[in-house]
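Customer escalation, tier 2.

The customer says the design service returned an amino acid string that "doesn't look like it belongs to this structure." They asked us to rerun it and document both sides in this ticket. The original structure tokens are below, unchanged.
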């Protein structure tokens, strides 16, 4: 069940999706991506396209609201969780409720829906700058790991304060009062990133190999502060040490140079003994396959953390894949990895799921017709 009110061009609608899902077919600019954006908003309270929240309000209006219920495998006999979110432009107020109750922090409500979205913009995770790959890790970890988002926010706060003090030429003691909280939160963030990558590295490689049907790829966590052989409780000390060692550099540049804000997730294409960065040398299809493998492990980690299969949202996600890759990735998606499927395409022949048995709905000028 999905209730929409003044979210982009979607107007005022209430939709009941069939339990297996639906394929939504409509011409360009009718609102297909908007609909998936509205659903995924309930997972992260952000636009998956990176739009600012004000842009999600229907033109000329002040408030949008989205509410949805997901019936997951866990709810047999119980009632489904309802996630609702609203945003008011004039007051810049966000409101989120879970089953009618407002959580203490919006961060506490993240990931309650259980959804993964595959979209053309995923390419940017692979061929964009390191910030895109850090954001991918941050979203995956915020959705799945208790305490990660809080640590990340504490880190960002300490970093912003330390940098502001550096820029305004404060005394060393004022700047460095931030070293302790910065290193403390950095250690939590880095430890979690390192654990997550090592936990999912093999699955990532397996997915890439399966979809590509031959070649291989790896993902490696490359932190800015070297912590290779250190246990988790050694990361804090390494961060403090890096801040000491780089003090002169930080002072000169007026910004903090060491920390998880400079981490990289290295995605490499492997051919026998040699490995090259996907970002620099990957073909369109290879980069797309890397992005799909990342989304598949994101789905797996959500399924494991929440113990139910996430909703699968597919927004034109198969562009640039040859037929053989398409078949193989669809095979992977079909194996109970995901729950309900909501897929959009401009026309029937663009649907990657031929003969999938999903009902077809239309969309015209934001109005969805079952
Ligand atoms: P395509 O097949 O090209 O990807 P689509 O069906 O996915 O198209 P969307 O991106 O969902 O299209 O919708 C685009 C339409 O939504 C545009 O015509 C745009 O004018 C409209 N739109 C975007 N933001 C808003 C908004 N805040 N209020 C009203 N309409 C909006
Ligand atoms: Mg679209």
């Amino acid at each position: 069940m999905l209730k929409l009110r003044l979210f982009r061009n979607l107007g005022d609608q209430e939709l009941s999706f069939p339990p297996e899902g639906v394929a939504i077919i409509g011409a360009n600019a009718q609102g297909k991506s908007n609909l998936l954006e509205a659903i995924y908003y309930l997972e992260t309270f952000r636009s998956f396209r990176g739009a600012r929240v004000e842009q999600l309000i229907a033109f000329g209006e002040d408030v949008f609201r989205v509410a949805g219920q997901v019936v997951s495998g866990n709810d047999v006999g119980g009632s489904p969780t309802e996630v609702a979110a609203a945003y008011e432009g004039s007051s810049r107020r966000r409101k989120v409720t879970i089953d009618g109750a407002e959580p203490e922090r919006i961060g506490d409500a993240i990931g309650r829906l259980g959804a993964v979205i595959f979209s053309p913009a995923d390419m940017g995770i692979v061929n964009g700058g390191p910030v895109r790959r850090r954001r991918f890790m941050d979203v995956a970890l915020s959705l799945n790991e208790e305490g990660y988002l809080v640590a990340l926010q504490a880190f960002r706060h300490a970093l912003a304060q330390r940098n502001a003090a550096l820029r305004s030429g404060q005394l060393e003691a004022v700047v460095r009062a931030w070293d302790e909280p910065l290193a403390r939160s950095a250690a939590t963030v880095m430890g979690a990133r390192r654990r997550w990558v090592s936990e999912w590295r093999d699955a990532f490689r397996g997915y890439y190999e399966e979809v590509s049907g031959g070649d291989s790829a790896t993902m490696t966590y490359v932190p800015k502060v070297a912590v290779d052989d250190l246990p988790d409780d050694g990361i804090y000390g390494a961060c403090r040490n890096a801040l000491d060692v780089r003090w002169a550099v930080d002072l000169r540049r007026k910004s903090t140079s060491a920390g998880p804000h400079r981490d990289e997730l290295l995605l490499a294409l492997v051919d026998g003994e040699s490995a090259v960065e996907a970002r620099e040398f990957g073909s369109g299809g290879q980069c797309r396959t890397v992005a799909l493998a990342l989304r598949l492990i994101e789905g797996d980690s959500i399924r494991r953390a929440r113990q139910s299969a996430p909703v699968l949202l597919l927004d034109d996600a198969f562009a640039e894949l040859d037929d053989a890759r398409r078949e193989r990735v669809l095979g992977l998606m079909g194996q109970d990895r995901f729950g309900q499927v909501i897929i959009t395409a401009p026309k029937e022949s663009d649907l990657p799921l031929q003969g999938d048995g999903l009902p077809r709905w239309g969309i015209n000028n934001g109005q969805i017709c079952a």
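Tier 2 assessment: The sequence is consistent with the input. The first strand starts at residue 2 and ends at 5. The chain has a mean pLDDT of 93. Sent an explanation to the customer and offered a walkthrough call.
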